[in-house]
Design a protein that fits this description.
Blueprint (H helix, E strand, L loop, with lengths): L6 H12 L3 H8 L3 H8 L6 H11 L3 H7 L19 H8 L4 H13 L20 H10 L5 H11 L6 H8 L7 H11 L3 H8 L12 H12 L5 H14 L15
């Protein structure tokens, strides 16, 4: 098992990469410089501190909790685990639509009424919190993707085409992350690939190009769909499928530009 470097080390690297000082981060996050310096000195970060730091460094708070090796609070998890069945199809069908219609679908997702959480969300069979593969797969699970959904969606938005079970192996620590997989995971997570590689200890020989527009839209749609109940997700999925004008029974693999 990989030894966890500690969130302070990760944050220090991130600030150095962004050319931000502890004071600058504190100002952005509404914290004191001493609070930030305490984390940089390897003091365990508080939950409220992580939630404030996240938007200041352009991360989702969920991902910072995972990188810090902490359990994600229940109220930050996807609303309904049963929506996992439709989440990948919402995105895959949306990506086969013209850009304007993708935007319409995104606005619909954001406009649907917020429903009550039906149950506590739980991830499935993952490595200890110190394993980089477990971090990345956990991040995808917190976007309501199961292993099968990961395989299908990544095949559409990236050159990565792995079996569902392989994602389970990566998540359990049985297969190391590769430069290709980190780059493709990062695009779907909406995280800078170079930063995710550095934080997970994966060496990239060269700076990867920016993610394709399809991948950028996929990351946003996937994240926003976390707020949907299973019934809402099914409705949006059926609508996205009906909006497609080309062969609605199949998907282009590795969409042009991705």
């Amino acid at each position: 098992m990989t030894e966890h470097l500690g969130f302070g080390v990760m944050l220090a690297w991130l600030l150095d990469h962004r050319k931000l000082s502890a004071q600058a981060l504190a100002d952005r996050a509404g914290l004191t410089a001493n609070e930030v310096r305490a984390v940089l000195a390897r003091e365990a970060p508080r939950e409220d501190l992580l939630q404030r730091i996240a938007p200041a460094v352009g991360f989702h708070a969920v991902d910072l909790f995972i990188l810090a090796g902490l359990a994600v609070p229940d109220d930050m998890a996807p609303l309904d685990a049963a929506a996992e069945r439709w989440a990948p199809y919402i995105v895959m069908d949306a990506l086969h639509l013209p850009v304007a219609e993708r935007r319409e679908l995104l606005q619909l997702i954001r406009s649907l009424p917020q429903e009550e959480r039906p149950s506590v969300f739980a991830t499935k069979r993952l490595a200890p919190l110190a394993d980089p593969g477990g971090w990345v797969i956990r991040m995808l699970q917190y976007r309501n993707l199961g292993w099968t959904g990961m395989g299908k969606l990544l095949a559409v938005v990236s050159p990565t085409y792995l079996s569902a079970s392989t994602y389970g192996v990566i998540g359990s620590g049985g297969k190391e992350l590769t430069p290709r997989s980190v780059t493709d995971f990062a695009a779907l997570l909406g995280i800078n690939a170079g930063e995710l590689a550095a934080l997970t200890g994966v060496y990239l020989r060269e700076v990867p190009p920016p993610p394709a527009p399809e991948a950028v839209d996929a990351a946003v749609l996937l994240w926003e769909a976390r707020r949907l109940s299973a019934a809402q997700a099914r409705h949006v999925s059926e609508l996205a499928r009906s909006m497609r004008g080309d062969s609605p029974n199949g998907y282009f693999i590795n969409l042009p530009g991705s």
